[in-house]
Amino acid sequence: MPAIDTFALTELFRTAPVETALVVVTPVVLAVAQLAIGVITDGPLLPAIGFAIVMGAFAAVAAGFLEATHRRRRLEVEVERASLEP
Q1: How far apart (Å, rounded) are the C-alpha atoms in residues 44 and 54?
Q2: pLDDT tens across 40-85, in order?
Q3: SS percent in the chain: helix, strand, coil, step 5
Q4: Which of 13, 27, 65, 79 could form an SS bridge with 55, CB 3.0 to 4.6 Å?
Q5: Tens of pLDDT along 13-37?
């Protein structure tokens, strides 16, 4: 049984800290801020909760895309190295 190579979020932060922060951290911070504003101002919470759910889903999908992109780049480098070896 082959081992599954997981690309951890910490490894994403090490390889591309700006991209990861923009794609993963920013939507989560925006969602929490929107929820806090809704609670503080006694506004309707349904739109804030919907926004938080959508931003969380976006962060999850975008993190998966970013992970796939970095896996592809790493695979391309490995294939290039293998083709250059005699």
Answers
A1: 17
A2: 999 889 999 999 999 999 999 998 899 889 889 888 988 888 887 7
A3: 85, 0, 15
A4: 27
A5: 888 889 989 998 999 999 999 999 9
Q: How far is it, in rounded angstroms, from Cα 15 to Cα 69?
A: 12
pLDDT of 1 higher than 60: no
Tell me if 70 sits within 8 A of 24, measured CB to CB: no
Q: CA 85 to CA 12: how far, in whole Å?
A: 28
- Short-list 68, 38, 8, CA closest to 30: 38
